[in-house]
Amino acid sequence: MLLLLPAPLFLLFELWQLVICERYAGIRQIERNGDPREIGPGEAVSFGWLSMLIVYWAWMALLLFQTLGRAHGIFLIAVTLLGYGLRRVSGLKWLLVILTFEGAVRIGLLFSLCFHVWRRL
User: Fold this and answer.
1) Cα-to-chain-centroid distance, residue 49
2) What's the per-residue H, E or C state across the chain?
3) pTM of the model as a whole
4) N or C: where does the chain have the smaller number of CB atoms within 10 Å of the terminal CB?
5) Distance between CA atoms of residues 103 and 63, nearest Å
6) Based on the structure, what is the number of domains in the chain?
7) Domain carrying residue 28
8) CA 17 vs CA 27, 69, 101, 117: distances in Å
9) Shortest CA distance to 40 belongs to which of 51, 27, 29?
10) Which of 93, 85, 114 minimizes the C-alpha distance to 14?
């Protein structure tokens, strides 16, 4: 049960990811044909983002061993892998659409997990 308590933290992280993605791969960048790889975030933001992603993936893997969070963990991993696969084969113009949809589904899953944990407390 304690393993499920960081779910609100990861929910906030997902919201932060949507803001960062909009900033670096958003509509304005697409309109001016900007490449997000050329104008990426600074080192501190990149380090924080990557560190949080590593912790997030470890947490999703650990969810597979919990009775209550197993289904959420499976779907979080599946959505992430599917989104990654789609982003790899799509162009830059579809990047924001895929990232937004993927983020929204993960936010919904995390919100559901937070609700289940809250009901159990």
Assistant:
1) 10
2) CHHHCCHHHHHHHHHHHHHHHHHHHCHHHHHCCCCCCCCCCCHHHHHHHHHHHHHHHHHHHHHCCCCCCHHHHHHHHHHHHHHHHHHHHCCHHHHHHHHHHHHHHHHHHHHHHHHHHHHHC
3) 0.84
4) C
5) 19
6) 1
7) 2-120
8) 16, 22, 12, 23
9) 29
10) 114
Q: How many residues does the chain have?
A: 121
pLDDT digits (tens, 9 = 90+) for 70-118: 999 999 999 999 999 998 998 777 888 898 899 999 999 999 999 988 8
Neighbours of 30 (CB within 10 A): 15
**Which residue type sits at 57?**
W
- Tokens 């609100």 belong to which residue? 8
Residue type at 94 in one-letter notation? W
